[in-house]
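Before relying on records like the one below, remember that each one covers exactly one chain. Contacts with other chains, cofactors or solvent are not represented anywhere in the record.
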Amino acid sequence: MRVTQDSLVQSTLNRLQTRLNEHQDASTKVSTGKAWQVPSDDPARANQSLVLRADEHARTQQQRNAQDAESRLEITDSTLQSMNDRLHRARDLAVQAAKGTNDESERTAIADEIDEIREELKSLANTRHAGKALFAGYTDGPAVEFDDDDNTVFKGDGHEIDRKIGPEEKVRSNTTASEVFKGSEDDTFSMLHDLAADVRAGDVDKVSDRIGDIDDAQDRLQSAQSSVGVAHSRVLSALDRSERDLLAVQKERSDVEDVNLAEAIMELQTQEVAFESTLGSMARVLQPSLMDFIR
């Protein structure tokens, strides 16, 4: 088969274009750090990348949920402990008043302090987290208020706030004011209100009975603290797992998407040498001369 000058030029140009494309591909991999640029470059790996990215997004969201739950539960536990401390002080005051040895001014001082404890507990019950009352569920407003007759009004919606902290795991991140303060017959705020009135009246028998009511109120608080502690432990374990799992997914995605930089640089250098060799070969083959025209 006769090889003409035109066919030789075209063949050399095609070879040069191939080398140029390969050099550009290698250069792009080094500059971007990615093994492929568009899904059509490697459909199988592109599909795997989409699956891994979706998994990574889900695990990242679960980690955020766990972090939010951790924050809520830590603040809840601290607030419940403060409430318990104030109730413990109220109990000490009730025991002191139940002895019946206090004069009127002493009873008034004790009753005034019990009233202050009641107000402190109301303030603690309305502790806010991320702009919302911690013990009011999804309600924006306060968890507890006192009406014009000084009766207790629980304002929260009573809803549980669940957070998804794993692929198949949810945890409750809240407790409500009703659960903490409501008893079978009375609530903690009303009990303290009545206790202060009994102390002022010097009714030792009623004050003594209120000590048991305070114990019941503390039991409810401690039960809530126990539940919060269990949930907090689950959240911490989930955070540890999610961090490890997220790192594993990120590494797997990197293996699918990213190039081995050392190999990519070596490939680029190889393509540069091949491109320069092709240019040199083309220059030698296509050198025009008088003899070429005579032939």
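The two ends are 17 Å apart (CA to CA).
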